[in-house]
Structure formats: C-alpha cells, structure tokens
Amino acid sequence: MTYTTLSLTLIFVLIPLLLSKTLKLNLEKDTVIATIRSIIQLLAVGYVLKFVFDSEHIIYILLMITLMIGTATLNARKKGKAIKGITWKVAFTLIVIEVITQGILLGFHIVPATAQYIIPISGMLIGNSMVLSILFLNRFTAEIEASRDEMELILSLGGTPKQAIHTQLTNAIRASMIPTIESQKTIGLVQLPGMMSGQIIGGADPVQAVQFQLLIIFALLTTAAISSILIGFLSYPTLFNERMQIIKNSISQ
Amino acid sequence: MISLNEVAISFHNVCYEIDHLSILNNINGEFYKGKITTLVGPSGAGKSTLLKMCNGLLSPTTGDILIENKPVHFYEPTTLRKSVGIALQSAPIIRGTVFHNLSLPYTLQHKSLLESDAISFLEDVGLDHTFLQRQAEDLSGGQKQKVSIARSLLNRPKILLLDEITSALDPTSVYEIEQLILNINQKFGVTIIWITHNIEQAKRIGHYTWIMMEGQLLETGESKILSSSTNGKIQQFVSGVQQ
C-alpha cells in the first residue's frame, strides 16, 4: 500500500467527524487528536520495529518489552490509585506474564526466538493484560465499596481479611476474565481476529494464520487468569492493617 | 467501690482522630461485667467509633483500652472479635438462607453448624425452626436484627456490642428485641454495651449509661442520671430527644 492510497483511508475519519458535527456530539477534537496520535505512534513504532528487527540485538528487544510494560503499567495503575504500591504490583504482574508466556513459547520452541515473533506477541499479551488489570481494578474497587458492611461483618465475627474480601475478590477476578472467555467462544464466527486478518491480508496462508491466532488465544487465557488473580492477591492485603482493620480511604477510588 | 475483676472494658485517655479531625477526645471510664451500659448522645458524638474500638475494628490514635484488664492489642484480632461480639444497626445479611447466615461464624472457623444447634440459637432469639431455610433477605427488619444477634451469639461472646439495633424497628419489634437482650444478659451473663437514641429505652434497659457529645464523655453513672443530671448540655439533649 502506498502513502497516497493510505491517505484515502482518512475518509474513514471524516465520516465520524461529520456525524459528530451534525449531531453535536462534541467529539471532533478527540477524534482528530486520536487520529494524529495513532498516525504518529504507529509510524514511529513501525520505524523502531524495522530497526530492531534488522539489528536482532537482545538489548533492543528487552528495551521494547520494557517500554511496553512501563506504558501499560502507567495506564493500568490509574484505576487502582487508592491501592498502596499499585504501580509495582501491576508492573510485577506484567513481568510475570511476559516471563511465563515467553518462557513457554521460546522454551518449547513453539515460536522462533527472533524479534519478529517476540515483540508482536509480547505486545498483544501485555496489552491484553493491561486491559484485564484495568477491568479487574475497576470491578474490585466497586465491589469493595458496595460491600463494606459485609466485609466489616465478617471481620467483626472473627474472620480474617482474606475471608472478609473473598467474595469481592473472586467476583472481580471472574468479571475481568469473562470477556476474554466469551469473546473466544465466538471467535471466527462473529469476528476475525485482527492479527489473523492482518496476516491473511499480508498474503500469508490462512491456515498458518489460524495456527498463530490459536497460539495467541491460548496464551491470552493464561494472561487473563494470571493478571487478575495476581493483581488481586497482591492488592487485597494492602487494604487492611496488621490489626486486621480496614484501612480508611484504602478502597475509595 | 467496683473492683478490677468487675470491669469488662476500661478506657484510659482514649483519643481517635481521622485526617486530623478529633472524633474521640480523652475518654476515660469503665464498662462493668454482666451489666447493661447504654451509650447515648447526638449523632457524631463518637459512640459507634467507641464501640468499634471495643471489638478491634478500630484502634485508638492515643490512649489504651483494656479488655478484662489486658490491653486490647494483647489479643489476636480474631480471638478478640469472637469474644466481643457486635450487632450493627444495618444488620448486614449475607446472600442465602437464615441457616447460611447463622453458620457464618462457624464457616469462618472452618467448622460446621449442626441444624439442631442453629434451631436452638434461633429459638433463643424468638424465631422458630421454620425460619431456618428462609432467604435472609426476605425477612423483616426486626427478624433480620434477631438473626444478626443470634449470629453474634454463636461465637459465645462475653461482651455484646449493640449499635442502634432497634432504631429502625416498629414498637412491637423494639419490645421483643429489648426482652431478648435482657434475657441474654440475665441467662448468659453477657456484658451488654448498647448505643441508643431512645432515652426511655436507655432508662428502661440500662443499669448504667454513658452520655457522649462531640467526642467527649460528659457523664457516666446509673441510668437515672438521664433524668437527674445537672449538666445543662445533658438536660438540653434529653429534653430535645424526648420532645
């Protein structure tokens, strides 16, 4: 695709701009900013990736993954500001996910140990983990705020913090995992996944594209489970002190 | 003169602050074993905060609380909370049947509650066995409160803290709960600390009373001080509540 052809796709940006203007949705500014940012960010990342792929140096691969984890952490932590040390908890979770998934993929030689595979797969898994962390933290704080009486009741009857928060924790873990599981049930029937579509458009064999997509889908299940469970179990102890009391303001958003 | 052995809970210069805002200011006093002490005072007086400190749900910013002559931090929080039970105004109910709610203290200790024991506790609070399998959320306010009290009793507490448990109930339910608490106090010798806004109830039920305002303990003594206090603030509060 040439840049001239690509510029024609801006028609897809003009349509929502016109609709927003006509219906006074007041989304024009955000749409323009989003468009400009996506052009700059993706072009920049395209050139960076080209450089990293060409050099094939481990340091550049690690730098790219660090950048992804750093950005995802900063984005996800906003939803759990009230939880003490949330930045490190999210960062640790993302690192664990990266180590486990890449450990399996590279350890069993499922994918070649090259930047071309490691970076895009890491991007998809870290990105998904970031969304899951945000979903989990949103639901977790809402669950706790809505059931403070129940938590206090359990503590007052001699329960431990883990017992007091068990229902809220499992509800939040389930709620954040369900979208991943549900979307996988209809995959291929309702929507063709982005990566698979991209490969097919790029001229790859559709069966080969499906195989890679399945790899990603299975890895996403692990990502979903580990992200929410790890963040949950790392976060809940910070809501209580050593006397098993709910720390005031620890759970307000 | 009351001996140390007769003191269930004592407060020594207890203060509590949140965000530099004083909630309790230099509280000193005792709750006596086997007696019913009522805490009265306007909203914001710090009564609920004081109650939660006795159960270890909150800790004083400064000062000491002794439970049976031992500092509150001497006890493991879970042990303390089993020994000092609390029933709240909102009577929080967990989703499920009355049996499920009654079993909660046992479930938390990884034990099972026998149905016969559950029925016995239900009967102690004036509810018959037919309530056992009813959904707790469908009960009336008074019935929920009785289940909440029965649930607190399952830990066999020596001290029972009651936070405005009758304030949202009809007169019949209020009477039933009062009789129930009197029975628990007399039959099991449980020390009762009861927050109430109802001055008549405090006079009717309490052996002793604490009158609190703006985080301070204004006066303590036998419940008759509610009628005989010479403190202008107390007289104003009592007459205001009774009007």
From TrEMBL, chain A:
What gene makes this protein? fetB
Name under which the protein is recorded? Iron export ABC transporter permease subunit FetB
Key words of the record: Membrane, Transmembrane, Transmembrane helix
Q: What is its main location?
A: membrane
Enumerate the Pfam families for this protein.
Answer: UPF0014
Organism, scientific name: Ureibacillus galli
- Give the transmembrane ranges: 57-76, 88-111, 117-138, 214-236
Task: Give the UniProt family note.
Answer: Belongs to the UPF0014 family.
In the bilayer, the protein is annotated as:
Multi-pass membrane protein
UniProtKB/TrEMBL annotation, chain B:
Alphabetical list of SMART domains matching this protein: AAA
Q: Which PROSITE patterns match?
A: ABC_TRANSPORTER_1, ABC_TRANSPORTER_2
Q: Where are the transmembrane segments?
A: none
Gene Ontology MF terms in the entry: ATP binding
Which keywords, in A-to-Z order, does the entry hold?
Answer: ATP-binding, Nucleotide-binding, Transport
Task: Quote the PANTHER family the UniProt record gives.
Answer: ABC TRANSPORTER I FAMILY MEMBER 17
Query: What is the name attached to this protein's record?
Result: Phosphate ABC transporter ATP-binding protein
Annotated organism of origin: Ureibacillus galli
